[in-house]
Amino acid sequence: MEFQDLQIMAEQERSRRKAIRIHCCTSSGCQASGALELFHQLQAAVEAAGQNERVDIVGVGCMGFCGQGPMVSVEADGVLFEHVRPEQAPEIIASLDGGPCNVKQGDHAHPFFSRQLHIVRRNGGVIDPERIEEYIAVGGYQALYHVLHEMSPAEVIDAITRSGLRGRGGAGYPTGLKWATVAKSPGERKFVICNGDEGDPGAFMDRSILESDPHLILEGMSIAAYAVGADQGYLYVRGEYPLAIARLQKAIAQARKHDLLGSQIFDTSFNFRVDIRVGAGAFVCGEETALIASIEGRRGQPRPRPPYPAEHGLWGYPTLINNVETFGNIAPIITNGADWYAGIGTERSKGTKVFALTGKVRNTGLIEVPMGMTIREIVEELGGGTPDGTPVKGVQTGGPSGGCIPEALFDTPVDYESLAEVGSIMGSGGMVVMDATTNMVEIARFYMEFCMDESCGKCIPCRTGTVQMYRLLSKISAGQATAADLATLEQLCHLLRETSLCGLGQSAPNPVQSTLRYFREEYERLLRKRVRINLTSR
Amino acid sequence: MAARTLTINGTLISARSNETVLEAAREAGISIPTLCHLDGLSEVGACRLCLVEIAGSAKLQPACHTTVTEGMEVQTDTPRLKAHRRAIVELLFAERNHICAVCVASGHCELQQLAVEVGMSHVRYEYLSPDCSVDISHARFGIDHNRCVLCTRCVRACDEVEGVHTWDIAGRGTNARVITDLNVPWGEATSCTSCGKCLLACPTGAIFSRGSTVAELERDASRIATIVAARNERW
């Protein structure tokens, strides 16, 4: 394939488009509320109205406003329908010609949409993720062509470094530095791995990206492979994401068919193959060394680092592991330039971050906002506060590795350093909103139960410490604990943080420590009071 | 092989460049508690007892998995490390049903010795008292899961020294158990060669020979290292 071929494909795709394109979200979230039936009903309604020549019904990826699904949008006039029921399909088709329509309409000017900045999610809800032609029509794979023909691997790494992109898996390691390390590590061969083992409760960013724009991730991985000198990639996706896996399989087959994956891509000497590896339901496999063990066919358990995978990874070879969202940023950075990307966000956290906004919040869904936006803006403006208007108590970011941030600190900007300062982490992007009725001890207990269940059992502090902490939290919650129990709990927090083998154990105390830091009185209120017997008054 | 000079607890010592902090310390007569480490087997860094403080690193590092570097400053016995070690040993005692009085390994048990070494006087944590089984389906050996500490020394000895891999781990977290073959009774595990290396490697009374009675089980775990060394030197 040549650059011209890409342009021809894009042109053909654009010219075959009909006058009106109606987008129907077919991602997991909307599918769960009946989007597939709606999609078929819309097609039937077009047929019945004899509008086949004029109207195209396109199944698209996630539009973001998952709480309002199923969602339908009309491309030309920008009308957005929410909570669409299958039987309303004819009404929507009729409304194209000015017919009456009582389907609930959304508002693009709503802060939930207007305050977002789409880089990774720019094709979500716009293209059909199951057709490579649609991705190419919006400029897809041009960044890869540009990289292979006009940039050296060192230049690619330099561009990523200058962009300031940091790992979106949670820890925020500078992506350019990681790429440079892998590129410089000696090895007969190298690997690129995309970590799609998203497992935090309440987080669904990566699932949505994979379902909505699989080629974006493949393109990002290809560019990374060229930069570090890899010829084989693995997409590790958790087994609980069947739709994402199916769409990725389709995308890989299409890319191979068009020689965008495989040998001599774009008539260069660059070869790159991608295979999918499906996780079997272990949260710890999101930890990079456990993930590598899992791909190798071994038990998914972490090992001590160093050596880091960049030097000694898959089968001992230098391996680049990045998160889905990180790879999603690569093609846009190449297309628009490192300086463009570096101009977005804060001093040390560049670009945007996708969050899954859930919990006690009016507008539930996926948002992509520039780094540096405050939590208050996200929760109150985009999220619209709590559904019943009660005051927000706090948000939990970073899942079981993160912490709770109280309402008083909502003016904290969302960036890696600021979130760490208030005792939480950026994490992969889960953001759970809590209102006044939320019991913070129960929240800590919930996350501890999760960590206990998901501990692999390799290192002693995490394996047995999480059980003890869970039991202590249950005891506190039941009103049977004493101040000594609370002290033991805090000692265990310290022990797990300092001695656990991997990030799961080291960060397992975060939800407990952050709730203790900001909501200590909720714990103390539940402690059993010591009964004082006054012997002298007799 | 180049030599390195480092400081452990303020004492200057020398070490070979490919040695771990643990090897260097032991050679210099400095004791660091371990449980999952066994000479002759690969390192997994799982028990976290050998964690040491290294100047310039905020994180504690496992001595068994950290290679010496020139000028490295290591502390192996600070109050912080001692507190962590004691807590870890207590957590182990609370996890399964370790009852020394009726154990074949009492007096020859590494876990028991560790408790003495770290100064454990009592267990702060709730005993989990799990319901564990005892498998005596094998003609010569038995495994009592009540006493297992999941150090995986049996797994590694079987895999790396005997080359069989009869043992492995099933389940996760505190529900993890060592298993034979695909979780069949040991006596039915057809891959087992009955070599007894797992018995040698086991630090507690979890794996025992069926002939020994209470407090009678004496083993020499260093024989694993001898076998490995003999092979490497083509004895």
General description of the model:
The complex is a heterodimer of chains A (about 550) and B (about 240). By secondary structure, chain A is α/β, with parallel strands linked by helices. Chain A has four domains: about 100 residues, 3-Layer(aba) Sandwich (Glutaredoxin), CATH 3.40.30.10; about 200 residues, Rossmann fold (3-Layer(aba) Sandwich), CATH 3.40.50; about 80 residues, Ubiquitin-like (UB roll); about 80 residues, de novo design (two linked rop proteins) (Up-down Bundle), CATH 1.20.1440.230. Chain A contains 22 helices and 14 strands. In chain A, the strands form three sheets. Chain A has a five-stranded mixed sheet, covered by helices on one side. Chain A has a five-stranded mixed sheet with strand order 11-10-14-12-13. A four-stranded parallel sheet of chain A has the order 8-7-6-9, with helices on both faces. In chain A, helix 10 runs parallel beside helix 12 and helix 11 crosses helix 14. The radius of gyration of chain A is 25 Å and the shape is globular. The termini of chain A are far apart. With about 240 residues, chain B is an alpha+beta fold. Chain B has two domains: about 80 residues, Ubiquitin-like (UB roll) (Roll), CATH 3.10.20.740; about 150 residues, Alpha-Beta Plaits (2-Layer Sandwich). In chain B, the strands form three sheets. A five-stranded mixed sheet of chain B has the order 2-1-5-3-4, covered by helices on one side. In chain B, strand 8 and strand 9 form a beta hairpin. Chain B is globular. The model of chain B has no long low-confidence stretch (mean pLDDT about 95). The chains are: A alpha/beta (about 550), B alpha+beta (about 240). The interface between A and B is medium-sized, with 30 and 32 residues.
